[in-house]
Amino acid sequence: MTALLSAILPIICIVIIGATAGKKLELHKTTLSKLIIYILFPALVTDSLYTTNMSNHSMLQILLGVFVIALVLYILVSLFSKYFEISTTIHKSLIATTLHPNNGNMGLPLIEFALGSSGLERAVIYMIGSSVLLFVIMPALLAGTNLKNSLQVILKLPLIWAMLLGITLRVLRIELPFNLYEVLNILGRSSIPIALIILGMELRSTTFKITNLELLSSSLRLIAAPVIALCVGKIIGLRGLDLQVLILQSAMPTAINTVVLSAEFGGEVNQVARTIILTTFLSFLTLPIILLIIN
């Protein structure tokens, strides 16, 4: 519970600051969203790829697990949307909130506390795979429906180039002079509080309510996702710490940055914001149970 409080209470505080700042300072959400998508988060991904010490084999296994879990969840959301005749806008929101766990600013500190530094290294790789889904594939799903539009969206976003830069620095073992790697670190770390400020600004104008959509998305995110992660991990041969990290990262509440993408590329932003808050608070109940099970 201490780890959960340490991860969640800072989030709540910054969200409150964002809500207050949005009211008093007349900040522009669109400008802040573009700052994260086009500058700050690409820096975070490059920095993570540049500094990790994991073997390539372990990295590829975890990344495979991330993508297979997301595919299964995407199929489930599509089936639910078709069965209940959900509108396109809400369907996009359900995809965003279901596929993307908050495995950065919540998952990383929780896993470091529960599983140590070795678990943290694996959690970072999961976060990178999730970032590819969130900032490369998800914008294409939200903004375009055909291959041409999807490719155009992907190539316009800098994250794909940030990934290539990080991989190049890692493979060629390039040492950046004059502590220039600190530029990546500082920019990347600043993406999380700004995303939380945007969330607070959005929630200030949102009437919080729990509908069947939020309950459906929360169930898929907090219950179905870790069960799917267990099955997928077993199938692809993950064991021990690798499997524990895959399950725990998959069990995190909805990622903060989904509200940024929904505002930028499409989706019901209010519904996304409500789901983020609901899953975050419900995770107080679900994550201790999952920690007990995986240990």
Automatic annotation (TrEMBL):
<protein>
    <submittedName>
        <fullName>Predicted permease</fullName>
    </submittedName>
</protein>
<dbReference type="Pfam" id="PF03547">
    <property type="entry name" value="Mem_trans"/>
</dbReference>
<dbReference type="InterPro" id="IPR004776">
    <property type="entry name" value="Mem_transp_PIN-like"/>
</dbReference>
<keyword id="KW-1003">Cell membrane</keyword>
<feature type="transmembrane region" description="Helical">
    <location>
        <begin position="123"/>
        <end position="142"/>
    </location>
</feature>
<feature type="transmembrane region" description="Helical">
    <location>
        <begin position="154"/>
        <end position="172"/>
    </location>
</feature>
<feature type="transmembrane region" description="Helical">
    <location>
        <begin position="178"/>
        <end position="199"/>
    </location>
</feature>
<keyword id="KW-0813">Transport</keyword>
<feature type="transmembrane region" description="Helical">
    <location>
        <begin position="275"/>
        <end position="294"/>
    </location>
</feature>
<keyword id="KW-0472">Membrane</keyword>
<dbReference type="GO" id="GO:0055085">
    <property type="term" value="P:transmembrane transport"/>
</dbReference>
<comment type="similarity">
    <text>Belongs to the auxin efflux carrier (TC 2.A.69) family.</text>
</comment>
<feature type="transmembrane region" description="Helical">
    <location>
        <begin position="243"/>
        <end position="263"/>
    </location>
</feature>
<keyword id="KW-1133">Transmembrane helix</keyword>
<feature type="transmembrane region" description="Helical">
    <location>
        <begin position="62"/>
        <end position="84"/>
    </location>
</feature>
<feature type="transmembrane region" description="Helical">
    <location>
        <begin position="32"/>
        <end position="50"/>
    </location>
</feature>
<keyword id="KW-0812">Transmembrane</keyword>
<dbReference type="InterPro" id="IPR038770">
    <property type="entry name" value="Na+/solute_symporter_sf"/>
</dbReference>
<dbReference type="GO" id="GO:0005886">
    <property type="term" value="C:plasma membrane"/>
</dbReference>
<feature type="transmembrane region" description="Helical">
    <location>
        <begin position="220"/>
        <end position="237"/>
    </location>
</feature>
